[in-house]
């Protein structure tokens, strides 16, 4: 039986499930009081076409999640953000690391998986600025999902399918765009000052979050400003493991203390209705201390870890809205610096104590410009968006510690040389309206050029570090057809690409004691993708006394030149023996694999004037990967999943009940040998979590026009379950599978006061 999974997102299916509440525009502020919005207002997306368009009128599958939906579902991080998004997942491993070999779980929320593809192949951006790449080298593992605090997020857009024709590299499989809040989101017209304070608690990780925002404006409204601060303190996330021993057999989570701080400020100057200037500063840090009981052994008395992540961002932008040939213009300059530090102290007996430290730094500055023009050709309306972006990233990595490793290995050492990574891209897209707007065509194309310029130093273990230059042209073509007001069709062809990372081109490392080495590859080609999708949409259909909207879409995606690190010895027997007498085992990143994914998605929403609403979604998908002509199942596709919810909203109170069902991953959908082999070389089957059904309940009460209380109970029936995305790669013979389970019954609460 083929792999099945659920994907939703057409017509703006929100991460909050979104049932019953108003579809707010992505740029709209959350309600300022207890007011409930019951009228149907379509959500809009900017990510899909770089223009504000309703999500059911773009040739793509897009999810828009508003800040109100984030709060209603009490999401504290990106894993919570998509927990009601079938087909989109965030991988999070339990924190079980060692000093020198494994960084298990230290990457936190590692990143987004969209339609079975994940990692750096999914574009993640905050206000149009890319978050740093994920990175892994030995015990240093860096994720991409913990670079922001959701408290300052106004909306999130999740685009399924390649985004490279508009955004360049990284958009191989999709894009996740976070848009932050503005001062106007907290200010009423004519008011000098506004803001809010919020406190929340979650029993899943014993976390407390406190946040406050103050916004102000001048009497004329030309100047606006805001300052926000959020503090979060948490423990390790609970699971349902019962073994609490201080050994590797432990399945209960290792104890952790986590704290984060987010400072966010904006200054806005709007001298007239046509121009707006905005200065933004953002600082975020996250610090975690872990007592790794699971690393203790007869020779390891204690193992402690410190993980620190920081991100600073300064940006300045200007938007112009006019009536001439250039109807809209936007330009921005920005600087962003992000650092990840992972430190480990290991108390060993009788051996000498050991420390290990890994650093991964990214500093980027860039500029972007975007223009829009409205005109007609032979009476046919055209809406053109075009522009460019440029960025230069300085990427650095370092590993060090005491005592020094076995020669010729040495500390401190760089796993790749310090590298300048330069990108330039220019794009153009047209929206052509035919038959009075019933049919809209979206041709687009983008040219990208990139350069990898390494800086050789004595800390890099190899004598050479080659650079690389390349370019890529990415086309896209979509169409949306609404022959009637209630029935529509769409189709889309899109290509994507992902440039090689500096750490792939010049990965360099030698371990003489274990007899292996990693060597550079300056000939790496970009990874590429092609996706074709098409579907039907209906809206405003009267059924059971309510208004129904529904959609169905089929898609097929082909990915080529996937980059992977493999053994490249001419004699393949040397790849497994690690015997110095036979020469070193050599590893290198090469363009190796191809992937094919196809699937079908459907979704339905029904809303009633009484305030009730129902939403359900279902999808299936299958995927294969090919290596050297040999095909195997694609493990990264999640099992099938169904999400359905019933919601009620009124001016005073409301709530929702959400049922999630996830199927079990079939062994036939898992590549053989990916979870290890036995002593005879036979592949061991992978651990597959059981199918499960969970119920989550949330509710809100508008105590006054200024105060709102929200509560939630999750996993109401205390189901023992695990996500395939988290447990992927664990052998069926493992005795610690309970370490990958999710929390049992848990509760959350928050109180918001607006002023």
Structure overview:
It contains 6 helices and 36 strands. It has a 22-stranded antiparallel barrel. Strands 3-10-11-6-7 form a 5-stranded mixed β-sheet. The chain has one domain: Maltoporin, Chain A, CATH 2.40.170.20. A hairpin with a 2-residue loop joins strand 6 and strand 7. It has 755 residues and is mainly beta. The N terminus is likely disordered. Helix content is 3%, strand content 53%. It is globular.
What do we call the CATH homologous superfamily?
TonB-dependent receptor, beta-barrel domain
Class inferred from helices and paired strands: mainly beta
Query: If you average the pLDDT, what whole number results?
Result: 91
**Beta fraction:** over 45%
Major β-sheet annotation: 22 strands, antiparallel, barrel
Structural domain count: 1
State the total count of DSSP E strands: 36
Shape designation:
globular
Q: What is the helix content?
A: under 10%
Give the termini separation.
Answer: 56 Å
CATH architecture: Beta Barrel
CATH topology: the name is Maltoporin, Chain A
**Cα radius of gyration in angstroms:** 26 Å
Tally the helices.
6
Give the uncertain stretches in residue-range form. 1-40
CATH class: Mainly Beta
